[in-house]
Specification:
By secondary structure, the protein is α/β, with parallel strands linked by helices. About 20% of the residues lie in helices and about 25% in strands.
Length: about 290
Amino acid sequence: MTAHPPLAAFLKSRPPVLDRGPIAIILIEDDAAVEETLRHHLGLGFRHILALSPDPVTLPPDLAGRITNLHWNARDAMAHQGAVNAVIAAVPAGTWLYYCYNAEFLFFPFSETRSVAELLAFHAEERRSAMLTYVIDLYSTNLTRDPNAVSLTEAMFDRAGYFALGRKGPDGQPLDRQLDFHGGLRWRFEEHVAPARRRIDRIALFRAAPGLHLEADHRFGIPEYNTYACPWHNNLTAAIASFRAAKALATNPGSREAVGSFQWRNSERFQWNAQQLMDLGLMEPGQWF
């Protein structure tokens, strides 16, 4: 098999790395913070990463054994849907999976001292098969210096301005334990963001199951997977610190002239730790102490 095989061919070969999770699927759209994204998620304890990219990615030798770089058009608007559904169909039922894009970084309660496997083991004990994550937009303080809005050393985010709206089903009735979450750059610059892309909720951590299917809007076809908690008490939630919205707003022709700066009165320096996000209520430890 080539060094950058197609995703479909790799999955069809049933390699041993698919036998056990948690497995991370990382869609690489451009060259922003690629190595940093991969290292961050390996540091959380993912057993293996499937790095999907249209062009080969040069992996540092110390990362190569835990990462497989596969050919996939990650720049396509529906790239996440096709890739995630293909992996769901290829792994054993019950395997924990995660997906994100480059320049996105997963944080969960106590993630500096506990692994993602510990997190998911507790979540499974609470009979949960999916975990809600909030996508928290990061952005550079200086768009002249960082025209793609990415700065790992001076990243900012919004400490306020987040809200949830009731989610209704096709019949117009409220859905049980489902909400549409909003905030960050998608809210502040909503005139440049398509309505279907303004939500910041993503079910990024989930267990593969027969018939499970990811929809284009980051929700799953099994309603329980889209809930924020079980009926009895609050459950764990996580956050994905993401430069993706800032990159799009700062570089797309339709919005870049309108964005002089992303900073506002509620901007705060991102400290790259889970406690900061928990203190602001941007993720929930639930019953995990």
